[in-house]
C-alpha cells in the first residue's frame, strides 16, 4: 500500500531530477535526495498515525499528480485569478503559478535598504546563504512525509530577508495560483528571516482553478531574531476539489513577536500546521485562526507551541464554523519544557455546528514539564445561542438574518485581530457574501 | 529554599507504608501463558464449557493483538511468559465465622487498617476480600440475600447464577476490546459479581479489597455489576499491595450495566505499591473499566483516587445509551517519585438528553508524570447532549510533568461540549500565608492539595473520603517545601 502511494511520485521525481539536477548546486541535490529517500522510507501517513487519525489523506495524496515543469502563461485564467487574489495595489507582490515564479505579474520595487524580497530559484542561483542554510537544516523539530516531499521537490517559492533594524514599510503579498489542466502538484518553499529589531507584514494566499484537482504542498520556514516582529496572514482559497497541505515552522528568539492569522475557506482537504519554537525569553506569540468548511470539506488545523525558555506568553484562538457534511479537526499542542518557568499559555478553540451531519474533532493538548507556569485551554462546541437568537427576533429581525448576524459576530472575533485594513476588508466581504457565510 | 528542598527530598523518599509480604503457602501453576494454561485455570475453577470457550476465544484474539504504544508512559517491556497466571492460597477455609480465617491473613488486613470485625460492626460494610486470586471472606451475605441482592465472588456466580453471568459477561467490555482486556478475558482468576434486582436500593455500600500477594502473580480480576430497573448500588473498591522488586502486572476488567432508572456509584481508592524512590518495582496497573447506561434515566458515576502503582493506565468510561442517562467521572491522580499515570475517561453520548460531567485533578511531584486522556463523543442522534469537563493539574517540584490529551468529537448541532484545563503549582504565597498562621509547610501543602481535590472528595462515600485524604497526605509527604 505504502509503496504504491510513494510510487505515484516516483515518476515525477525522476522527471524533476532530470530537469533540475544539472542546474542546481550540489548541496541542494543532496538535500533533495536525502529528503526523497526519507519520504520513500516513511511513506504517506495513514489513519493509524496519531497525527492523522481524523484526516484520511492517503487517497488524495496518493493520486498521480504531475509536476508542472514549464508554464504556458498569459492565459485568461491567470489574469482572472490574479485580479481576485490581489488585495491592495500598494503591496509588494510575488506571484507564483503552479509553483513557479512569474516575474511579469510580480512587483516589489522600492524596497528599503537591507531588504531582499525575491523568489527562491533566484536566491539559489545567486548563492545566498539563507537558502542553503534553511534548505539543508531539518524542517522544524522533525521532518514529516509532506515536508520531506516538499524538500525533495524544492525549487521555487518566496524569500523575504530583512536586515537588522529595518522595517518593511508595506506588506508583502505572496500569491500562489494553480491553473494547469489535469492533476498537478506544486511544492512551494518559502523562507522568511527577520534580523534583530526588524519588522514585516506578510500575506500568503492560495487560489486555484476548477479542474481535475491539484495538490499544493507548501512549507514556510520563519526565523525571527531578537526583537523582530512578524505579522503573518494566510488566506486559503484553494478550489473545492484540491488538496492543500501546508506547514509553517517558526523559530523565535528573545523578545520577538509573532502573530499568525489563518483563514481557511477552500480545498477538499486542507491541513495547516504551525510549529512555533520559542527559543528565547520574553517572546510573545499569537496564533489566530478561522476555518469554515461546508459541503464535504475537511479542514484540519494544527498548532504546536514549544515553550523552551522562561517568561514567554502565547495566545491562541481558533474558531470553526461547520455546515453540511463538513468535518473539522483541531489539534493544539502546548509543550512546556522543564526550563520554561513563568510560561503563560492560553488556548481557546470554539466550534459552531450548523448541521447535524457536520463533525468536529478537537484535541487540545498540554504537555507540561515545568512547575511555575500558567496554562489554560478551553474548547467549546455547540450551536447558536437560542437566547441571543430570541433576543434578536423579538426586536423584529427575521430569524435567517438573526442567525447570520450571530455567525458573523462569532467569526468576526478572529477577523478583528487582523491589523492590515485591506485584509480585514477582504475577509469581511467574504463573511458577508453568500460564499462565506452559509445561507441559513 | 534549601530547607524546603531537603524536605522535598525527604518527602519523595518516603517508603511505602503497606509494604510487607504475607507468608502463606500458595497453590500456583508454572509461569507462562498458553492455551494449556487457559484450560488449566478454567479446569481448576471447575468452569462450564461455555466460559472456557469464551476464554479461549479471547486468548486467540489476544495473540493477534499488539501491546498499545499510544500512551504517555514508559516502562520496560512486559514478559507475558514470565508471569504466573493462577495462584490461590492453598488452605481455602470454609468459613462459618471470621475466627476460622487464617490468622496470618487477618493480620495482613489489620496492618492495612481494615480489620474485618470492626468494619463489619461499625461501618456496616459487606466485604468481599480478594486475597490474591480467590475470595476468602464474604460477610453480610445474609442481609443482602434478604433484599435479593447477589454479591459474591465471580467464580461462585458462574456456578450459582450462570444465566446472569452469561447474559451480561463481555457485553460492555467485549473479549476483543483491547490488549489488556483480552488478556484478562482469557486468564481472569476471580473477582466480584453483583446483581441488584428491580427496584431495590442496596442497603449497604458493597466493597472489595484487592491485594496482590504471591510473588510474580499478575492479578486479573473481573468485576460485573448489574443494576436492574430502578435499583441503586454504591460499590467501593480499595487496594493496597505489599512491597515487591519485580513489576507486577495487573489487568482488571470492570463492567457495569445500569438499566432503566438504575444508578451505580463506583468508587475506587487505589494505593498499590508504587515502586521505591529510584523507580524500581511497583505495580503495572492496566485496567479497563466501562459502564453502560442501557436504560432511560440511568446513571453511572465513577470516582477514583489513584495514589499508588508505578504505572496507572485506566479510563473508566460510560456509554450513555439510554435517553436522559447521566455519566460522571471524578478523579484524583497523584504521581510522586517515578510514578506515571495515564488516566481519564470516555463519555459516549448516544441517547437523547444525555449528560456527562468530568472532573479530573492531577497532582505531580518528584519526577512523576501525570496525563489526563479523555474522550467526549456526541453521536448523531444524541440530541441535546451536554458535557462539561474540567481537568486541573498541580505541579509540585520542577522535574515532574502534567499533560492533558482530551479528544472531543461532536456530530450533533444541539450538543454542548465544554472543556477547561488549567495547570498551576502550589504557590509560594499560599504556603507563606498558611505558615504565617502557624501551620507547618507540610500541613500547608496538604491543606492546599486537599482543597484542590475537594470537588472529588465531596462525591466519595464518607469512609473512603477519610482514607483518601490520608493517603494523599502520605503520598505527597515531603514533596514540597
Q: What does this 3D model show about the protein?
A:
- The complex is a heterodimer of chains A (440) and B (481).
- Chain A has helices spanning 2-20, 26-42, 58-61, 76-85, 120-126, 129-136, 145-152, 386-394, 399-415, 421-432, and strands at 66-67, 92-97, 100-101, 115-119, 158-162, 172-178, 184-186, 189-194, 199-208, 215-224, 229-237, 243-252, 257-264, 269-278, 284-291, 298-307, 313-322, 327-336, 344-353, 359-368, 374-382.
- Chain A is of the alpha/beta class.
- Chain A has 3 domains: 1-277, no CATH class; 280-383, no CATH class; 385-440, no CATH class.
- In chain A, strands 1, 4, 5, 7, 8, 10, 12, 14, 16, 18 and 20 form an 11-stranded mixed β-sheet that branches.
- In chain A, strand 2 and strand 3 form a beta hairpin.
- The longest helix of chain A has 19 residues, at 2-20.
- Chain A is globular and about 70 Å long.
- The model of chain A has no long low-confidence stretch (mean pLDDT 90).
- Chain B has 481 residues and is an alpha/beta fold.
- Chain B has one domain.
- Helices cover 26% and strands 34% of the residues of chain B.
- A 10-stranded mixed β-sheet of chain B has the order 4-3-7-9-12-14-17-20-22-24, covered by helices on one side.
- The termini of chain B are close together.
- The model of chain B is unreliable at 7-13, 91-96, 117-125, 132-137 and 210-217 (pLDDT under 50).
- The A-B interface holds A 50, 338, 341, 351, 353-383 and B 70, 72, 378, 380, 393, 395-425.
Question: What secondary-structure arrangement, pairings included, does this model have?
Answer:
The complex is a heterodimer of chains A (440) and B (481).
Chain A: H1 2-20, H2 26-42, H3 58-61, E1 66-67, H4 76-85, E2 92-97, E3 100-101, E4 115-119, H5 120-126, H6 129-136, H7 145-152, E5 158-162, E6 172-178, E7 184-186, E8 189-194, E9 199-208, E10 215-224, E11 229-237, E12 243-252, E13 257-264, E14 269-278, E15 284-291, E16 298-307, E17 313-322, E18 327-336, E19 344-353, E20 359-368, E21 374-382, H8 386-394, H9 399-415, H10 421-432
Helix pairs in contact in A: 1-2, 2-7, 8-9, 9-10
Chain B: H1 2-12, E1 26-28, H2 35-44, H3 49-64, E2 87-89, H4 103-111, H5 116-123, E3 126-131, E4 134-138, H6 141-147, E5 150-153, H7 154-160, H8 162-168, H9 179-187, E6 192-196, E7 206-211, E8 222-227, E9 232-240, E10 248-250, E11 253-258, E12 263-271, E13 283-293, E14 299-306, E15 311-314, E16 317-320, E17 326-335, E18 340-343, E19 346-349, E20 355-365, E21 369-378, E22 386-396, E23 401-410, E24 416-425, H10 428-436, H11 441-452, H12 454-457, H13 462-476
